Amino acid sequence: MQKMSYKTVLEQLPRVETEWIRPLDPGSYRLTSFIFLRFLGLIYTLAFLSLANQLSPLLGSDGLLPVPLFLEKTLRYFGDSATAWARLPTLFWFDASDKTMMALCHIGLLLSVLLLLGISHVLQLAALWVIYLSFNQVGQIFYGYGWEILLLESGFLAIFLAPLRQRRAPSPAALMWLYRWVLFRVIFGAGLIKIRGDACWLDLTCMCYHYQTQPIPNPLSWYLHHLPTLFHKLSVFSTHMIELLVPFLIFSPRRLRHLAGLILIGFQILLILSGNLSWFNWLTIALCIPCFDDHALERILPNRLSNFIQRIPLAEMSHTRRVGVYGLCILVFYLSSAPIQNMVSPQQAMNRSYDPLHLVNTYGAFGHIGKQRREIILKGTNDHPADPNAHWHEYQFKAKPGDGDRMPVLVSPYHYRLDWQIWFAAMSDYKSNPWLVHFMYKLMQGNEGALSLIEHDPFDGKAPAYIQADLYDYEFTAADDKTGAWWKRQRLSTWLGPLSLEDPALREFIGHYSWDR
């Protein structure tokens, strides 16, 4: 039997594409790819914008969780740089100075805006992914959210959609199927974690609590909370139907797949209206776009946009790109084993990566719904805390509830990382949240970075002598409340404090984490 040369083998690949990929889905995806990349550019822009505004006070050398210190401890833990690089791949192993981190952040923001404006290139998408991966790896607790790894997974696949030259890159159907596989894991994983995680999802009562106890409610949350119980139960039932049944339609023939895409987009819009969940729902909407082919999108998009896309010369799919797409499919197939095992496991985990590059992950949302809302309120005073007449002044944050008369904010898809983490901190003690003790320490120093993370400083930049964290119970006011307040609250206990800079226990605590350098 005559051996085939490497070139001959590559020349046979178009036949494989015709026989395997195209019969699955014969539609054109030039317009689909264009719209998806613009939407991805929007998400990247939001991600880098929020990072640029919070980088220094959160992760800078004088931040709450300094990256240089984190990398130093990581290297010491792994013992050698090669292992550290392999387990935690990030550009900041080269240099983790504040200037370098801010420069990379601004480069990422610039590349994101260009993508949003319609300028895309393979190297640009690769750079965006590498930069955001680098920040994600060192972001520690402030990057422990499902939408971070979802953006990385989506961004990595997008590298194979972008053109290498001025002509538009072909949009193989295989990539659209890979994005549908991501969308399936996001939606179906969320459905599975609910029926396994909290009994209120099974008795259909979770939505009686969710609008009030979610991390950052918005103004509509108050009104939704006061809807009849029957409405809440129907909402939970509809959520189960959408998250457990509709995902399978993603892989069905085009008309049913288009229907699934429309249902999921509508579902995400409702979630956006109900609360501030960062850009998670926005990115999920972007993942719904590959459910539609060009013919479907041409019906709803302006003719000028469609004609503009069609006028851009389309490059032939090169052998290199074709091999890359096939290799990507094989890689995703291989790495999907762990997420699939997790989804079918009774001990399903939520939002977890199984490889250091976060290429194929498992997802889930709100497996547990809090029945009561606990909030940590920070207070400062210049009086002696033992004095019963001491005047305590509260710090107001940008997004989380504080003053009961203050209307809940509307910030999505922007992400205030500190406000989210304080919501989690109220569920445990200070030993599980040392970063919050560090934040209190910096407030007593009048640290400008720490003060930039809050909405209102009651001391106008002058550090208080003492600071204390109290735990409060929060509830929405009743529907017939006439006071105009949005929240009613009751103090439960002291979460931590009172503390002062001269407190030996506080200094020992800060020194233990090497934050006193």
Question: Helix and strand layout, with pairings?
Answer:
Elements: H1 6-21, H2 30-59, H3 67-78, H4 81-87, H5 98-116, H6 122-138, H7 146-158, H8 173-197, H9 199-202, H10 207-213, H11 219-225, H12 229-244, H13 246-249, H14 254-274, H15 280-288, H16 294-298, H17 303-311, H18 319-335, H19 337-344, E1 352-353, E2 361-362, E3 373-381, E4 393-394, E5 396-397, H20 417-425, H21 434-445, H22 448-451, E6 454-456, E7 466-476, E8 487-499, H23 504-512
Antiparallel strand pairs: 1-2, 3-4, 3-7, 5-6, 7-8
Helix pairs in contact: 2-5, 2-7, 2-15, 5-6, 6-7, 7-8, 8-12, 10-11, 14-15
Structural summary, described in words:
With 517 residues, the protein is α+β, with helices and mostly antiparallel strands. Helices cover 54% and strands 9% of the residues. It has helices spanning 6-21, 30-59, 67-78, 81-87, 98-116, 122-138, 146-158, 173-197, 199-202, 207-213, 219-225, 229-244, 246-249, 254-274, 280-288, 294-298, 303-311, 319-335, 337-344, 417-425, 434-445, 448-451, 504-512; strands at residues 352-353, 361-362, 373-381, 393-394, 396-397, 454-456, 466-476, 487-499. It has a four-stranded antiparallel β-sheet. Strands 1-2 form a two-stranded antiparallel ribbon. Strands 5-6 form a two-stranded antiparallel ribbon. β1 and β2 (361-362) form a beta hairpin. The longest helix has 30 residues, at 30-59. The radius of gyration is 25 Å and the shape is globular. The N and C termini lie far apart (71 Å). Residues 6-23 have low confidence and may be disordered.
